[in-house]
Amino acid sequence: MTVSDDTRWHRFDSADAVAQAAAARIYSAAEEAIAERGRFRVVLAGGTTPKAAYTLLREMPAQWAEWFVYFGDERCLPPDDPQRNSVMACEAWLAHVPIPPA
Predict the structure, then answer these.
(1) Are 46 and 58 in contact (CB under 8 A)?
(2) SS (H, E, C) the chain
(3) Whole-angstrom distance between the N-terminal and C-terminal Cα of the chain?
(4) Which residues partner with 69 through β-bridges?
(5) Residue 5: which pLDDT band, with cuts at 50, 70 and 90?
(6) pLDDT per residue over 34-93, tens digit each?
(7) What pLDDT was estimated at residue 46?
(8) Rounded Cα distance, 98 and 78, in Å
(9) Does the pLDDT of residue 1 top 60, yes or no?
């Protein structure tokens, strides 16, 4: 496996700093995509770092109606199981913003 020349590493002093940077990059990508294409599509992951970023995202003044959210790392569990990534994402973020459920 080769590493491309455009590989960039980012160093952060804490998990909180990682979450803040991730939320800012997601928000920036969303604003750019909506400006260019009228919508933003994002695939969510699970875990503690994404959870912190999702919690930060819910405070941002995003154009939520233009966001399309997909789950890329879902467990084969009942829809309301607390170990599902979708449950975590809803509790941390999605239930707090007006993204249309459909």
Answers:
(1) no
(2) CCCCCCCCCCCCCCHHHHHHHHHHHHHHHHHHHHHHHCCEEEEECCCHHHHHHHHHHCCCCCCHHHEEEEECCCCCCCCCCCCCHHHHHHHHCHHHCCCCCC
(3) 40
(4) 42
(5) low
(6) 999 999 999 998 878 799 999 999 999 999 999 999 988 667 888 888 888 889 999 999
(7) 81
(8) 24
(9) no
